[in-house]
Amino acid sequence: MRFSSVFVLASLVATSFATTVDDILNDISVISTKLNSLDDAITAFPVTGGSLAKALAIHSNAVSLGTSIDKATTDTLAVDPNPVSEADAGALIAAFEVLEPVIKHALVGIVDRRPAFTALPIGGIPALVKQDLNNLSASTIALEDALVSVTPESAVPEAVELRNRIDAAFATAIAAYA
After folding, report:
1. CB-side neighbour CA atoms (13 Å) of 11
2. Tens digits of per-residue pLDDT, 101-149?
3. How far, CA to CA in Å, does 59 sit from each of 39, 65, 117, 136, 147?
4. What sections of the sequence does the record tag as coiled-coil (predicted)?
5. How far apart are CA 128 and CA 69, in angstroms?
6. b/e map 53-88, b = 16+ CB within 10 Å
7. Which residues have CB under 8 Å from 168's CB, separation 6+?
8. What Å distances lie between residue 138 and 132, 157, 174, CA to CA?
9. Strand partners, 79
């Protein structure tokens, strides 16, 4: 009797840690909100001039976004079933595709503002931006890899193509801060 109680308890604990596709879609929604906040902060920073406070607001938004991306990665790796259905894979890829133009806009914006960051009276902001870009890129790659890993074989090419486009945009931005 005691063994069966332990088994039931272990099953309940294991089930409570499983993630659903809806959980991942919710994570992507949170990422979208934070990505838009970051993009807005970048857009609000002038291409000439600017303040340390606005530069640090960009950094703060980047850190917050990275935390959300990391949570989505953890949830994606715990999804059940794995791989997800073709319909669910399509929903995940579509949700991620909505982020692509905002990611690219933010990355182009951060490159365009490099001279303004360099001109700030306190040094080190370009290095901080480069660090944020590297961290966000690493987090994004981990999420992309997690999404590809739970995608059924038939949808992997589409997921990989999306990953490659986003990774190329990050590579361009990171190179601008090298």
Report:
1. 6
2. 999 999 999 999 999 999 999 889 999 999 999 999 999 999 999 999 9
3. 11, 10, 12, 11, 26
4. none
5. 19
6. ebbebbbebbeebbebbbbbbebbbbbeeebbeeeb
7. none
8. 10, 21, 12
9. 19
